[in-house]
Design brief:
Length: about 475
Amino acid sequence: MLRAGRWGRALRPRGGAGGGGGGAGGTGRRVSGLLGDLGKELSKMGKTLRENLPSRSWDPLGRQENLPPEQADVVVVGGGVMGWSVAYWLKALEGRRSGMRVVVVERDPTYARASSVLSIGGIRQQFSLPENIRMSRFSAFFLRTVNYNPSGYLFLASEQGAGALEENVRVQRDEGAQVSLLSPAQLKEKFPWINADDVALASYGLENEGWFDPWSLLNAFRRKAMSMGVYSCVGEVKSFVTSLGNATLSKGQPHPISRIRYVNVYMPGSREYQPVSCAIVINAAGAWSGKLADIASAGTGPPGSEQHVPLPVEPRKRFVYVWHCPNGPGLDCPLLVDCSGAYFRREGIGGNYLGGVSPAEEDEPDAGDLEVDHDFFQDKVWPKLAHRVPVFASLKVKSAWAGYYDYNTFDQNAVLGPHPRVENLIVAAGFSGHGLQHAPAAGRAVAELVVKGRFESIDLRRFSFDRILAGEPARETNII
Ligand SMILES: Cc1cc2nc3c(=O)[nH]c(=O)nc-3n(C[C@H](O)[C@H](O)[C@H](O)COP(=O)(O)OP(=O)(O)OC[C@H]3O[C@@H](n4cnc5c(N)ncnc54)[C@H](O)[C@@H]3O)c2cc1C
């Protein structure tokens, strides 16, 4: 790029600006005067050039390194933790080296709005569905290398919720999870800073729970996958080229089904796109995966029609607040999930904590931006925290952020597997707040589907898209 300032400096004679210094006499002054003029001219030329170029970021050589190839076996849309996990596992499971060309397309390499980097990085065994517990158990094993901070989750239940909590712990123990049940007295003895007055029962994870650095996990998958030959490309998938056909349902009636031929990858800041012909597309677009599925299945029927099967995943804004409380619970603070739904955990060792609460359905904030609602903390979070941990009455909020849950409105669980109307589109989305910890297991599961044609390590058929068509939710009750 032509930089006028740099040229001007390089052409200026040593010994001072202008024609004065150096003692070279008249010739020196004339030469330096000429050079000064040349510098000014070049500076002007550079300015004119810059003003007339199509855009300030115009690069005559093009950004070849980010262009996708024209052909791929698998295109993964979304380069968050899920997309890169799928890509890594595809390479790890491919039968022979370089047997599969995998491309990951991510529209925003800064990840400014990606859930992966805005999450709080928690992992727990305490779910209500065996499939989620199994995924967490695999991930815990996998995550030990990623700056992992072991610490149990502590779920509190009121009289009303105690039965469900006990049942969940039974399922967790059946799956091999180490979880203890605590009476209010035991709870008070272990965590004296808790107000246990309205707690009937608590469950506390003894292993494979804690938190880790989300960015490290995302990068670990990304860098390893790239070292194994996965293409990384910056661009947005805004359209597909599909071909239409008909399939016959078991009841005999035909229904339209399509196949993606090309994924159109739009280059950043441009109307140009690169069509990538491919065999399989993975929808790992996180909170935007519902939107992407709509684009892909558009040919099978317009939204709202009987033929159209929407993927019920949408962005839901969640706030995380960080506060300081020097005489708070301290080092043995677990990740506490209150009967009210509020949660918090320690953040580092300097008396800082972070937490929040999911809003009630009718209070869902506008998901159009990632602005933080500070009143929400005052009105909905702080009173719950101060009730459960009286010393939090004197906390001081230090900072806050917002991120999107990849929220499955149908049953708050993952959708994993083929799209019912687009035969070569595989969905890996809808984790509703637990996708980070499940990325290692879910990525492996999707890669198994692609490479082996079925789930091999963990049977995740319960999370298939078909349940949505059948209207049979696989509801996870332990959603935070
Ligand atoms: C506040 C908060 C706390 C959380 N806490 C936890 C937790 O403790 N534990 C846990 O397990 N999970 C947690 N989660 C959930 C977890 O972060 C998500 O489930 C997970 O990160 C989803 O990963 P992803 O890769 O699918 O989505 P993302 O990280 O959002 O990645 C999707 C990517 O797709 C890209 N994309 C979208 N559309 C297109 C397109 N058309 N073309 C190209 N690129 C596209 C986006 O730019 C984005 O980078 C939390 C989430 C939030 C918001």
